[in-house]
Amino acid sequence: MGGLGVGVPLMLWTHFRLPGAETLSVLSRYTIAPGVAFGYLGLVLILLRCGGGGGFLSRQLAAVGRTALSCYILQNVISIVAFYEWGLRLGPLDSIGTITAWAVISAILMLGASLWLRRFPQGPFELAWKAAVEASFRRRDRTRAEAKDVRQEPGQRHHDDNNDPSGAP
């Protein structure tokens, strides 16, 4: 939490362009940012503990966790559409605008993830990834089974053909 105690005042100092803001801006961007990140992490942990792990924020973060790959990809797509020149051209943003954009995009992703998980067990990209991985294993298993059938002698039957574990005809 100490990172927020230092980082937020510096961010406000540079935002309001108080004396020395240019120097503080460079300093805060490249040296204090990791401390602020740990401060945000601590704040999230405190909020989660206050909710007892079963509160609203915990449920929303759990939904994002179950759809992490989809949320990551969608976050980038939303940001590209919102901030690039061929999109909505909302950028570049100052520090407060960046935090506001992050909060709005995060809220959209949390809402979308929880709505998606009402109908499906995982996010869309997670489901596609799982199907692709399982397909390669199914293909490999099928190839092994076919190779085993080819190597088997013509008169010999599978154990499963007569449910006799000895393989006797």
Automatic annotation (TrEMBL):
UniProt superkingdom: Bacteria
InterPro entries reported for this sequence: Bact_Transport_Assoc, DUF418
DUF418 domain segment(s): 3-133
Keywords on record: Membrane, Transmembrane, Transmembrane helix
Transmembrane region(s): 32-51, 63-84, 96-117
Region (Disordered): 141-169
Ranges annotated as biased composition (Basic and acidic residues): 143-162
Pfam families in UniProt: DUF418
Protein name: DUF418 domain-containing protein
Source organism per UniProt: Streptomyces aurantiogriseus
